[in-house]
Amino acid sequence: MLNIMDDFSRECVGQPVDTSLSVRRLAKFLEDMAHQLLLPTSIVCDNGPELISKAMFFWARERQVTLACMQPGKSIQNAFIESFNGKFWDGCLNQHWFLSLAQARYEIDQWRAHFNHVRP
User: Fold this and answer.
1) Rounded distance between C-alpha atoms, residue 89 and residue 60, angstroms
2) Which single residue of 22, 30, 73, 98 could bond 104 by disulfide (Cβ 3.0 to 4.6 Å)?
3) What whole-number distance in Å separates Cα of residue 77 and Cα of residue 55?
4) Contacts of 106 (CB under 8 A, 6+ apart)
5) Is residue 78 a contact partner of residue 70, using CB atoms and an 8 Å limit?
6) Could you tell me which residues are beta bridge partners of residue 11?
7) How far apart are CA 56 and CA 43, in angstroms?
């Protein structure tokens, strides 16, 4: 799973949930999102293998999106997502025992909708 946030609105705009998140799966998820939202000019990301791969680099270049990778060990460079990740773990992942991928997707989507609705 990957949390995708809009830095301007502070809204969680997507959370692809799968047993493994390949570059191909992530690119498809972002493409699907682009049909509903405009792609950003820049994506701030950590140094996860799916985000620093050649395939992701070429995907971003084709769409004129800059990948801005944080320095390793410097999670404070994206403090908002780190804060969100903590709330997500406490409010969702630590509260549920998922019996299937479908259930995980449902519960996570419900939590995200609630978070986006009630956040200050």
Assistant:
1) 29
2) 98
3) 24
4) none
5) yes
6) 6
7) 11
What is the end-to-end Cα distance of the chain in Å, rounded?
24
Closest among 82, 40, 38, 84 to 65, alpha carbons compared: 40
15-49: buried (b, 16+ CB within 10 Å) or exposed (e) per residue? bbbeeebebeebbebbeeeeeeeeebeebbbbeee
Instruction: Single out the residue of 60, 63, 46, 48 nearest to residue 5, CA to CA.
Output: 46
Specify the pTM.
Answer: 0.80
**What single letter denotes the amino acid at residue 8?**
F
Q: pLDDT 10s digit of each residue in the chain, 120 long?
A: 888 888 888 899 999 999 888 888 888 888 898 888 888 888 888 777 777 788 888 888 998 999 888 877 777 777 888 889 999 999 999 999 999 999 999 999 999 999 998 765
Residue whose C-alpha is closest to residue 39's, from 14, 17, 18, 3: 14
Pairing status of strand 66-69 against strand 42-45: parallel
